[in-house]
TrEMBL record:
Residues 300-311 have a biased composition (Polar residues). Pfam families: Epimerase (PF01370). CDD domains: SDR_e (cd08946). Residues 4-241 form the NAD-dependent epimerase/dehydratase domain. InterPro entries: Epimerase_deHydtase, NAD(P)-bd_dom_sf. It comes from the Bacteria. The keyword Acetylation does not apply. The keyword Oxidoreductase applies. Belongs to the NAD(P)-dependent epimerase/dehydratase family. Residues 297-322 are annotated as: Disordered. This is NAD(P)-dependent oxidoreductase. Keywords: NAD, Oxidoreductase. It comes from Pseudarthrobacter humi.
Length: 322
């Protein structure tokens, strides 16, 4: 059991991370500007509210709570949801404030959230990868302040890892489009549509290249990562996604419709294969996502007949993954 300090613990991803780590037996300190309502706070979770950008606040809260590990999630999490300079300054300063304070206190394990958007898909000037599936070797080409701020968060952990050697363990992870448990029941996803709508209309999932991950699988990933961080190279970055794509048809068919020029590149994305590989997390950590839209989505109330039929057909092949 560890004592884990989670920033952004009241957020879409943070709530599941806090709950999952507490359920796994850890002592969890959830830190956020906004409080989790008392009746929704998982048993045993300690909650602290504060603005982590206020001078000295990260150091004060970390000193007061004395954790063994820090998971930094707090950020402006949606591209273009604030002016570009505000997103850039907020996310880079938050990452630096939390990671530097944790380093100063000698906290043994420090993890920060990045994003798959660092790769640069959706760029209005055009974007094509060198190959699919995308993985941690794919070259980042951020084109907006959010993606750039996340790449800098990764580089912040790498900078501290370089300076600290093996004294402190650092890692970054890129969660795919996060689906929290209530969203399987019809609550709106981060971009406002329901899961059923995203599946019924591929144009809605295409901007994120059909990626997604269940927030509880991210919590499991972080639990495994913290257990294994002592045994893997320092400062690593991991994609954390579902084992399949958020689509009812193979991406080899869908991708060229939304990403012009990707016919040959996407030809290998057959069956239910996602565009993002999670092979590194599987190989280095032994982590495996347990949830898929095929196992979690409550289809009966939300899908029209045509989509239900295609979901049933797609679900029949759900074991066929990348
Ligand atoms: N949701 C996704 O699909 C997704 C995908 C990739 C990466 N991420 C990353 O994962 C992390 C969590 O995302 P999320 O969807 O839960 O976002 P969210 O907006 O739901 O949660 C972020 C939390 O950070 C808190 N916060 C922001 N500024 C703060 C400050 N100055 N002090 C204290 N708390 C502050 C907010 O109050 C909020 O509760 C973010 O770093 C995000 O960039 C999310």
């Amino acid at each position: 059991m560890s004592r884990i300090f989670v920033t952004g613990g009241s957020g879409r991803l943070g709530r599941s991370v806090v709950a999952g780590l507490a359920e796994a037996g850890h002592e969890v300190i959830s830190v956020d500007r906004d409080a989790i309502p008392a009746d929704q706070l998982p048993a045993g979770v300690v909650q602290e509210t504060g603005d982590l950008l206020a001078p000295g606040e990260a150091l004060r809260l970390l000193t007061q709570t004395a954790p063994d590990a820090v998971i930094h999630l707090a950020a402006i999490a949606v591209p273009f949801s604030a002016p570009e300079d505000v997103i850039f300054a907020t996310n880079t300063r938050l990452a630096y404030a939390v990671i530097s304070a944790a380093t100063e206190l000698g906290i043994g394990k420090i993890v920060t959230a990045s994003s798959p958007t660092v790769l640069g898909y959706g760029c209005p000037a055009g974007w094509l990868p060198d190959s699919f599936p995308l993985d941690e070797r794919s070259v980042p080409k951020p084109w907006n302040a959010y993606a750039l701020s996340k790449l800098i968060a990764e580089q912040t952990v790498q900078m501290f890892a370089a300076a600290q050697g093996e004294k402190i363990r650092y890692a970054a992870f890129r969660p795919c489009y996060v689906i929290s448990p209530e969203e399987w029941d019809g609550a709106p996803t981060q971009q406002g549509h329901t899961l059923a709508e995203r599946l019924a209309d591929p144009a809605l999932s295409a901007p994120a290249l059909f990626n997604y991950v269940d927030a509880r699988d991210v919590a499991d990933f972080l639990d495994v990562l913290l257990q294994k961080m002592d045994t893997i190279p320092n400062g690593e970055t991991f994609f954390v996604g579902a084992a399949d794509a958020l689509a009812t048809a193979p991406l080899a068919e869908l991708m060229p419709r939304f990403l012009p020029g990707s016919e040959a590149l996407a030809a290998g994305l057959t069956g239910t294969s996602p565009a993002f590989s999670i092979a590194k997390a599987r190989d280095l950590l032994g982590w495996e996502p347990k949830r898929s839209w095929r196992t979690e989505l409550k289809t009966e109330t939300t899908l029209n007949d045509e989509t239900s039929a295609s979901l049933v057909t797609a679900g029949a092949g759900s074991k066929e993954t990348s």
